[in-house]
Design goal:
The protein is mainly alpha-helical. Helix content is 76%, strand content 0%. Helix 7 packs antiparallel against helix 10 and helix 12 (268-292) packs antiparallel against helix 13. The two termini are 30 Å apart.
């Protein structure tokens, strides 16, 4: 490990942080493109809702299979990242992701739905490697007490990617690379995803050229075998919590375009702008969470910083979407409600998690029973309350695991499988009950997360702050 003074080390980490932040942005952008692909492929192949949700099933199913294989390999032969290093592991993940993007060319050329799903699976495997390596590496790029801040920062830029993707990606697929007719063109995805593959490869080249600090690994902590981590009740509950959170967030995002078509009569070109508000809300919430859950900032300054950041990010989102101010002004109400929820949560992760999950369940119920603008506003407002859920569930789940922390983390990454399973089940419900009534499934997910938050607030009632570990799916 380097023995440079703290100031020199911090300066040494600036370029790697900037480079990895770019990676997180692309990671979020391409992941959110799935929400554009679903209505596109649904029309192209005349799919049912269930069949179209196989997009998320293959993509997030790769997270489960990839992390399961990684867990088995590391348990039997040792941690692969420790053997080849973080830098090479990150580059391998990027190259595999670029390969997944490149496979869209033969999929679009042959117009085979199975090839599209194969490309998404390979893409998901690449992102699985990044999920395992990039988050951990960012946490090492500086002092330990600043790890949470750094991770929240990179994750916020990940959310920037998910915010821009519906607008730019929707324009590329539905307008710029379409054939100009009213029918969906199978070739509309070829060039966009080749461009994504090229950008990812450029990022890989950039990372290979940048001098990333080497972090030595030791065998001081012998890796535990078996499934000893599962003896902790809060971890078992947390695994299901991650499953429910990722599943609900992805399912809602996947159905927003179809939902707005039914309740508002909007076309894809209009709906993609509102989809950006859903994902943009998560970005606002993560920036606010990074400030409010940071105990190094004076309480008197937190609210000022949060209001300022919220205003700036809202203006950024407004500049990206093709909507008037009157069409997006309703979102200011949710920002105010989010600020209030943080204040009521009083920087306690479990309490804040329960509050956010409860509000999300109420908003979903409103979207189910109401119609028109009220239904639309309710669904779009959920994004800002999804913001800190992954990080808080993750941190609460591994609290107190000690020597089983690494094993518990692997199990939590596997639980991202929820992003594959929940949307498919909701798709089946939508085919039989309609899109609005199918929202009862994510409502159940948020009710469970609410209960998990209440359980952890009692279990860790003597711990006011469990440092959040920022993460994403």
């Amino acid at each position: 490990m380097s023995t440079l003074p703290n100031t020199s080390r911090n300066q040494q980490y600036i370029v790697p942080m900037v480079t990895l932040t770019l990676l997180f942005f692309m990671w979020g952008f391409i992941t959110c493109m799935n929400d554009i692909l679903i209505p596109y492929l649904k029309q192209l192949f005349s799919l049912s809702f269930f069949e179209s949700m196989l997009v998320q099933f293959c993509f997030f199913g790769a997270y489960f299979i990839g992390s399961l294989v990684y867990f088995m390999v590391s348990s039997r032969w040792g941690d692969p990242v420790n053997k080849i290093g973080y830098k090479k592991s990150i580059i391998a993940g990027i190259i595999l992701s670029a390969l997944g993007c490149a496979l869209f060319w033969p999929a679009a050329t042959s117009s085979l739905y199975g090839l599209f799903l194969t490309a998404l699976f390979v893409l998901g495997l690449g992102f699985t490697i990044l999920q395992i390596t990039a988050n951990a590496y960012v946490s090492l790029l500086g002092p330990e007490d600043g790890a949470s801040s750094r991770l929240n920062l990179t994750q916020a830029f990940n959310s920037l990617g998910t915010t821009i993707a519906p607008v730019l990606g929707g324009h590329l697929i539905f307008e710029f690379f379409s054939d100009g007719s009213d029918t969906i063109s199978p070739q509309a995805t070829r060039i966009p995803y080749i461009i994504f593959a090229g950008i990812l490869l450029l990022v890989a080249v950039l990372i290979s050229a940048v001098k990333l600090p080497n972090f030595e690994t030791t065998d001081e902590k012998k890796e535990e075998r078996g499934l000893g981590a599962l003896k902790f009740i809060h971890l078992r509950l947390g695994v299901l919590g991650i499953f429910c959170y990722v599943g609900a967030e992805v399912a809602i995002g996947s159905f927003i375009i179809s939902f707005l078509e039914q309740v508002m009569g909007y076309t894809e070109s209009i709906s993609k702008n509102y989809l950006a508000l859903y994902w943009g809300g998560a970005m606002i919430g993560r920036f606010l969470g990074a400030i409010y859950l940071n105990h190094n900032i004076q309480a008197a300054k937190k609210l000022i910083y949060m209001i300022g950041i919220a205003a700036l990010v809202f203006l950024l989102i407004f500049s990206l979407v093709d909507l008037t101010f009157s069409q997006v002004s309703f979102f200011l109400i949710f920002i105010a409600l989010n600020l209030l929820a943080f204040l009521v949560g009083r920087a306690a992760p479990a309490r804040t998690l329960a509050i956010f999950a409860g509000i999300s369940a109420i908003l979903l119920a409103s979207g189910t029973i109401n119609s028109g603008s009220y239904a639309m506003y309710s669904i779009l407002g959920i994004g800002i309350f999804n913001s800190i859920m992954f990080s808080n569930i993750y941190t609460l789940s591994i609290a107190g695991l000690g020597k089983y922390t690494s094993q518990g983390s692997s199990l939590l990454v596997m639980a991202i499988l929820g992003g594959a399973v929940i949307p498919v089940i909701q798709g089946a419900l939508a085919d039989h009950l309609g899109v609005q009534l199918s929202l009862i499934l994510p409502i159940a997910c948020y009710v469970y997360i609410f209960a998990f938050g209440i359980y952890c607030s009692k279990k860790f009632k003597n711990i006011e702050h469990v440092g959040p570990v920022a993460g994403g799916h």
